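User: Hand in any protein.

Assistant:
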Amino acid sequence: MMTRMIAATSTFEGPAIQWFKISPILALLGGALFLILVGSLTPQWKRGWYATASVITAVTAAVLTGVLWSQMGDDAPSTLVGGALAFDHFALFATFTICVSVALASLVVNDYLTREGEDGPEVYGLILAAAIGGVVMVSANDLLVLFLGLETLSLSFYLLTASSRSRTQSGEAGLKYFILGGFASAFFLYGVALLFGASGTTNLQSMAKVFADEVTVPANDGLLLAGIALLLVGFAFKVSLVPFHVWTPDVYQGAPTPITALMGSVGKVAAFAALIRVFMIALPSRIDDWRPAILVLALLTLVVGSVLAVIQTDVKRMLAYSSISHAGFILVGLEAASHIGHADAELGISSAMGYLFIYSILVIGTFAVVSVVAGEGDNATTLDAFKGLGKKRPVLALGMTVLLLAQAGVPLTSGFVAKFGIIRAAVSVESYALAVAAMLAAVIAAFLYLRIMVSMWLSDPTDDAPVSISKSAGLAITLAVATTLVIGVLPSLLLEATKQVFFRISA
C-alpha cells in the first residue's frame, strides 16, 4: 500500500504555469512581502519610503499588464494555471485599473499617515494584498478561485478600515464591515455550493455547458435558481447595491479617508468585474432568470443612491451614497450586455468597464481632496469644512470642482464619457426605462455636487485654519484631474481600449 502511494505521488504533475502571464500578480506579491517582512525586520525607514515602494510596485504591475495587453493583440482568450485564471482583454483591463488605483491611493495614504504621525509598512502591505485579491477576482475562471480572491480582498479591507487606532469610528466601521462582510461571504459560498450541486463543477466554462443542457439541468431547477440568487446577494453586498448597501455610508465615513478611496476604486472594480464575468460566462443560458433581478437592482440603486446623497451633511456620507448611485450606472451596463444576440449587446460590457476605470480615478482624486481638508484627526468632513475653500486654497478648490463636475457628467470631462456610454448602451438594446432612470439619477446627483461647489466658492470660511497640501497628495490630485480632462477631451484614448473588452457569447 505504501509503495503504491509513493508511486502515485511521484507521478503527480501540477499544472503548467506561464509565469510571465501572471507577472502582475507576482509583482504585487513581491512588493507586499517586501514591505511586510523587510519593513518590519529592519529599522524604521525614512518617512515616505514605504509609500514609494508601494507606488513602484503598483506601477511595475501596471506596466507588465500593458506589455501583456500589447503582446496579446487579437489572440483568442486562454486560461492559466490549469484553467483557474482567465487570460483575456477583460482581465488585463481590470488589472490595469486596479494597479493604477493602488498607485494613486498609496500617494494619498502617505499624506494621511504623515499627518497622523504614522508610517508603518503594514498598511501598504495590506493595500497590495487587497490588490492581489482584486486581480485574482477579475481573472478568476473558477468560483473557488474567485472566493479565495474575494476573501483576500475583504480581509485586507477589514483591517485597513479599522487601522486608525486614534479614532473610535474607525474601529466601529471595521467591526461592522467585518460582520456584514462575513454574512455576504457566507451567502456567496452557499451560492457556489448550490451551483456546484446543480452542475458538478465550479469552472465557469464547464458550468455554462452543463446549464445550457436543459436535459441535465431543467430550466426550472430550484437548486440552480437558489444558487444564482445567493451568488447575486453576495456580489450585491460587495458593490453596494440597494437594498444591500446599508453598510456603505457608515464604513465610508468611519474608515480613514484614503482607505475609503481604495474601497471605492479597487473594491468596486474587482467585485463588478467578477460579477460580470460570472454571470456572462457561466450563466448566459439563464439570462431570463437573472436579468429581471439586475433590472430591479439597477433601478433601486440609481434612485435611492442619488436621492439619499442629496440630504446628507457629511461629505464622506454624500460621496458614499454617490458611489451607490454610480454602482447603479455600472449595473445598467451589465443589463445591456445581457441582451445576447442583439447587435449592440457588447457595448454594455465595454461601457461598464470604461465607467469603472473613470470612476476609480475620480473617486481617488475626490477623496484625496476630502482627506486634505479633513486635516489631522480626519474629522473635519462636514460640508461646513469646505466653506470658503476657494478663498483659502483656490487651486485645490478648482481641482475638486473639476472632479465633481466629472462625477456629475458635465461635457469635456471623463464623467460625461462614462455616463454617455452607459446610457447609449441601454438605449441601443431598448432598455429605455433604465436609460431614463440613469438620466434622472444624474440630474438629481448634480444637485449634490453643486452643494459642495457652492460651499467652496460662494461661502465664507468658518475658521482661519490653514489647509496644507503635501507633495504626495498634490501629485495624486493633479494626476486625477489631468486624467479626467484628457479623457474628457480625447475620449478615443479610452474607447479604443474598451472596444476589446467584451465576451463573445452565443445566444
